[in-house]
Structure formats: structure tokens, C-alpha cells
Amino acid sequence: MSFSIDEVNFIVYRYLQESGFHHSAYTFGIESHISQSNINGALVPPAALLNILQKGLLYTEAEITIGENGTETRLTESLSLIDAVTPDAVANRQNAHNAQKQAIKEPSSGGEQNGVDVCIKTDTTTTCSTAPTPTGVPTPSAPETMDVDQSIEIPASKATVLSGHESEVFICAWNPSTDLLASGSGDSTARIWDMSDNPATTPNQLVLRHCIQKGGAEVPSNKDVTSLDWNCDGNLLATGSYDGYARIWATDGTLASTLGQHKGPIFALKWNKRGNYILSAGVDKTTIIWDAASGQCTQQFSFHSAPALDVDWQTNTSFASCSTDQCIHVCRLHVDKPIKSFQGHTNEVNAIKWDPQGQLLASCSDDKTLKIWSMKQDTCVHDLEAHSKEIYTIKWSPTGPGTQNPNMNLILASASFDSTVRLWDVERGVCIHTLTKHTEPVYSVAFSPDGKFLASGSFDKCVHIWSTQTGSLVHSYKGTGGIFEVCWNSRGTKVGASASDGNVFVLDLRKL
Predict the structure, then answer these.
(1) Residue 40 domain boundaries
(2) Do 208 and 291 share a domain, yes or no?
(3) How far is CA 284 from CA 25, 27, 288, 507, in A?
(4) How many domains does the chain have?
């Protein structure tokens, strides 16, 4: 067995990406020169590092439990990863296990023996037999099962699994006009899936390959597609990539433009409402407004002192940006300095979102806080502290004045690595619901178009649908990989989700 340091570095890099540590992954990738290796990331399966660690742990347990004659007796307590790499801990477990085996051979005369399953696991099967349990050694209890409310579980018949990506799928977004679902993956492709109602056919997919020029030929970039966004008419899709390029695609899969000005990965990308400009944020500390028609850089803004992580349009010509430098800047086209800057976060700012009227700006951070800002003042309007871990993303409801749902109150949703989602009444600055059914970090939330429901996606592989009025869980579906993104179609009848195992799936919520 042999492996190169490049292979080790790439698997660690992929683990950081899959776990949501995108900025750490980028820094590690630069320092370890991953881009200079010839490893094809599309061939590396999801969760490769965890798979290797699990196999190593099983091997270490086998070293302890399998005797010289080849027989195995089960450990009464599983070996932890830290114990497995600590020589003294392994030696102590070996001695304890030998004592246990001796006790099995020589049980006390008055002792009663029970049956203990002895299992040997391979990659695909588990072979079990029964061995006696010595007196004083507790019989392992059956694993606890989580109660599932059958009335809210979405049946498999209502879920369409879309397979084709060869690596984790970080993002997905519905076309605003039709049931086309776009997805972006670590396999250096985006895909457009036709989810129109036609039960007699398998959904069609268009593969948008992200290529770069090398040696006079186009070759796959082998870089993640990090962001994508449809224009307002739904006839163009913009994508951003770790290869530093933004691209504009037609709905038939034709590449319309390649936008090259950033000096490193693009982390976020948004169309304005009019559809004439695209806004991007990059690791090169800059944000760029692009002319969508020509594909040219209209203006580049260099106000951040560290990578820019997110951007959001306020109007058709003004926008906000946030960064790992803990700052938020509001900028306007053809103005050579920020028209407003907000400071107050004490760690990197992960996401920013303007409310539907463009009056209030919400921001969330690794400092575990959610802040609300107004152009009318320098300090935050609300400093909301309730989450116990980093807040990864936020979304405003499509409700309140100026929306299609003017009679419903405006609320804000926040998703955190503490496994919870919170709904906030921003006017009062209070949390109105805490949604607690997830068991792993929550990476994405999305409101239904009527604002009555919220979808959430977590690395526990679950998509939950909640009532925004009561905070109750109304529908739930468990997929086969950690969920990076959830999104609603324009009619509010379907939820799309992208997962770490390379699958995209669509939940049909009609007649549930």
C-alpha cells in the first residue's frame, strides 16, 4: 500500500469542503498546492476521508479483538478515534480485552450466562454469531430508534431522485418561470433538470461543463461550481466557479459568455432584478458588477481587506457585500467608495440579505449573532443573540409591505451549525419560533412563495417543511446525503434539494 502526500492533501481538502469549511478549504488548497496536482476530483467519492477513518478504526478494533487462533470476541465498548491513535490507550484496551476473554473461558460457578452477538463487519455485509456473556458484563441493549410521525413523512412516491453528478452538489435553484431546476457540483458541472409534469418520462438533464483553456484546448476545470442564479425572465443562468470564472448559459445548455476578471474562486453571484447586471464576490477581496449583455466588467470594487463571501442587490444599481474581514459595505455603481459601511461583527460575516423593500439589511456571522442594519444609522438596529454556534445563512420571508403577501408579517429565518432554525419578528427584535428537529448543522432555509412554509436542509440528511405561523413540523423527508441547499419552485408545489452524496431530489408537495 502506498499513497502520495498530494492524495492525502486532496482528501483532507475535500473533507473540509463537504463539512462546510469552504474558506478553510480554499486556504488549505492554496498552501498545499492542490491545483498543481493531477488528481481528478470527480473520481473521488463523497465522504472519502470518513470512509478511510472508519475502516482504519475497524482494523484497529480487529487487532485488539481477534486472537492468535483467528477467533473474535466483541469489544464491550466501541473504540473512539482518539483512542485508536493513542498507543497507551490501545495497549490498555488490549489488556482489558484479554482479561475479558479469560473471564469468558472461566466463568464463575454460580454465574448465569447470556448471549452476546459477535459481529464482523465488511464493506457490504455483517456476519453475526452468538457468544456467551460473562457474569458482570452487561448485555448490550438494542439501539434506540427515533419515532417517526408517519403522518408527516413524505412518501418515496412523492420524491424524485436525480442522479448524474459525480461529486457533492452544493447548490440548486429553480427557474422563476418554469419547472427547470439548476444544480452545481464539485464535479465541475452545473446541470439543468426538466421537472415539468410528465410522469411518462425520466427528467431530462443538460450538463453544463465548466472548462478552461489549456494548451490551446478546452479541458475540464476540475473545480467546484460554487454559485448559480437565474435571471428574472428565466432564460439565462449564471454560474460562479472555484476556477475564478463566472459564466452565463442559455436554457438549452449553450454557453453565452465567460466572465473573467476575478483572481481566484468566486463565492457568490447574483442577477439584479432588471436582469442587465450580474454581481459577484471573490476570494480576491473584490466584488464586480458585470454587464450581462457584453460579459464585460462594468466596475470592480476593492474595499474589503479579506475574501468577500456574499453579495446582495439592494436596488438595480446598489448592493451590499460581506467578508471574512468582519465588515459590510454598501456600494453603488459608478461611485468609487462605499456609500455606507457597517461594523460590529467580531468574526467573519457569512451571509447578508436585504428585506423585500430594500430597507433593512440582515447579516449573520461565525460570532453566533444575527444583526439587522438600516441605512439611516451606523449601528445595528437589532443585535440578535440566541444561537449557540455559527450562523451559516439567513432568508427573509416574501411577506409584508411591497410583496405579494402584504397582509402577513415580515419574518427572518436563520440557520445555524447548532442544528436549529430560528424565526424572528424583526420589528420587535424577538425570536418567535425555534425549530429543533434537526440533529446536525443546518446549511439552508427557504420560504415558500406564499410565506406560509419554510423548508430547511441539514447534514442529518433531512429536509423538513415547517409552518411559519405555528413553528410546527408539517412534512419531512430523509435523503441519502447531507443537505447543502433547499429551494421552492415558483408555484410553491415542489421543493428541490442538493446533497453531499451527489444526488439532487425533488419533493412534490401536492396532495400531501
Answers:
(1) 5-69+77-96
(2) yes
(3) 15, 12, 11, 38
(4) 2
Residue 306: other Cβ atoms inside 10 A: 14
Residue 370, strand partner residues? 364, 384
Burial of residue 490 (CB within 10 Å: 0-12, 13-18, 19+) is middle
Q: Is the dihedral of CA 425, 322, 233, 184 positive or negative?
A: negative
| One-letter amino acid of 368 | K
The DSSP result for 33-95, as a single string, is TGGGS---GGGSPTTHHHHHHHHHHHHHHHHHHB-TTS-B---SSPPPHHHHT-HHHHHHHHH
Residue 114 falls inside a structural domain: no
Name the helix (H) or strand (E) containing 431.
strand 430-435
42 with 166, same domain: the answer is: no
Pairing of strands 453-458, 462-467: antiparallel
Q: How many CA atoms lie within 13 A of 405 on its CB side?
A: 16
CA dihedral of residues 450, 451, 452, 453 (deg, nearest 10): 110
**For the segment 457-491, what is each residue's pLDDT rounded down to a tens digit?**
999 999 999 999 999 999 999 999 999 999 999 99
At 4-56, the pLDDT tens digits run 777 788 788 878 877 777 777 777 776 677 666 667 776 677 777 877 776 67
Is residue 417, in this structure, part of any structural domain at all?
Answer: yes
Residue 397 has a CB neighbour count (10 Å cut-off) of: 24
DSSP codes joined into one string, 174-185: E-SSSSEEEEEE
